[in-house]
Specification:
The chain is of the alpha/beta class and 320 residues long. It has a single domain, classed as Alpha/Beta hydrolase fold, catalytic domain (Rossmann fold, 3-Layer(aba) Sandwich), CATH 3.40.50.1820. Helix content is 30%, strand content 22%. Strands 1-2-4-3-8-9-11-12 form an 8-stranded mixed beta sheet, with helices on both faces. A two-stranded antiparallel ribbon has the order 5-6. A two-stranded parallel sheet has the order 7-10. It is globular and about 55 Å long. The termini are far apart.
């Protein structure tokens, strides 16, 4: 079984770790912390609004989708403040088991069945820092539902911004929601079949069987940790999750921003392929910015943010 684990863990590329970005206070927007429920787990989210927003006024909404290990505090608060300054209501969140959100609970002892739901005391393990795009998708869809039902938001006029691994998660979210009117995919890992080709299908099938039989734990822990990456990747989920299967369902105007010298995956098989698959039927734009993957969050951030704002303004501020 150790050999099985090593085959999975050693073959995975170091994809999509989102770096910490500092954010200055912004007096032209304000925020409130909220609770979002996803698969029975309490998530912590944050909604940013312009400080000059008038009572009963409705504004377009923007949902921000973090990458690998990204949280409200270390990534998206910076973008949320800037987008809110432009006249949007912006929601971002911590994935389950990350930041201030609760994680899933794993029963460490067998539980006898009963005929009714009841309050009981049990021993559990609190699962933290698992990198699972399928779980991230459930959290993102819950956040989208929360944002679109906010009475201050124009529910049929929402933008979505996703970065890194969140690019793939956001792609599926956009494909499944017709109320998305503008989409920005930034350095997105959207083609998992290409990105995780080095993990054999047979190996994943064996790992799934081992989980089903209790040979492997239901949630990855320290044994799955990859070098230079924070958290515990669920490689089974990564292999099974393929955003590219949803490309044909994208109908929102889409801006794809890639790093010119992307080193974590082949951008030609990700962002550029995504753009090529949609450009003939939806309004779409593809551009590259100088540098590597993480440069988008540093010296490349001003240009990337400017392009995103221009895209959102063009498509979310039309007369309604």
């Amino acid at each position: 079984m150790k050999k099985l684990l090593s085959l999975i863990f050693l073959s995975v590329l170091a994809l999509n770790l989102t770096p910490v970005i500092s954010a200055e206070e912004n007096e032209t927007s304000t925020y409130e912390d909220i609770v979002i429920w996803s698969q029975g787990v309490r998530l912590v989210g944050r909604i940013y609004t312009p400080t000059d927003m008038k009572p009963k006024k409705k504004l377009p909404g923007i949902l921000l989708v973090n990458g690998w290990g990204g949280t409200v505090e270390n990534t998206t608060s910076r973008y949320a403040k800037i987008f809110a300054d432009q006249g949007y209501i912006v929601l971002t969140q911590d994935y389950k088991g990350w930041g201030k959100s609760n994680g899933q609970l794993y029963l460490t002892e067998p539980l006898e069945g009963g005929t009714e739901s009841e309050d009981i005391t049990v021993k559990v393990k609190h699962i933290r820092h698992v990198v699972d795009p399928i779980s991230f998708l459930a959290d993102t869809e819950a956040a989208f539902d929360y944002l679109s039902s906010d009475p201050r938001v124009q529910k049929r006029n929402i933008g979505v911004w996703g970065t890194s691994m969140g690019g793939g998660v956001s792609l599926v979210t956009v494909a499944k929601n017709k109320n998305v009117k503008a989409y920005v995919n930034q350095i997105g890992s959207v083609n998992h079949k290409a990105n995780f080709f080095m993990i054999p299908e047979r190996t994943i099938a064996e790992a799934e069987a081992a989980v089903a039989r209790g040979v492997l734990p239901p949630y990855p822990g320290p044994e799955s940790k990859a070098p230079n990456l924070y958290g515990y990747p669920n490689y089974i989920s990564m292999k099974r999750f393929d955003p590219f299967d949803y490309v044909d369902q994208i109908n929102a105007p889409t801006l794809v921003i890639d790093a010119e010298n992307e080193e974590l995956f082949d951008r030609k098989k990700n962002g550029l392929a995504f753009y090529g698959a949609i450009k003939d039927r939806v309004e779409a734009k593809y551009l590259t910015l100088p540098g590597k993957h993480y440069d988008i969050y540093r010296e490349g951030a001003p240009a990337a943010i400017k392009e995103a704002i221009t895209w959102f303004n063009a498509h979310l501020k039309k007369a309604k």
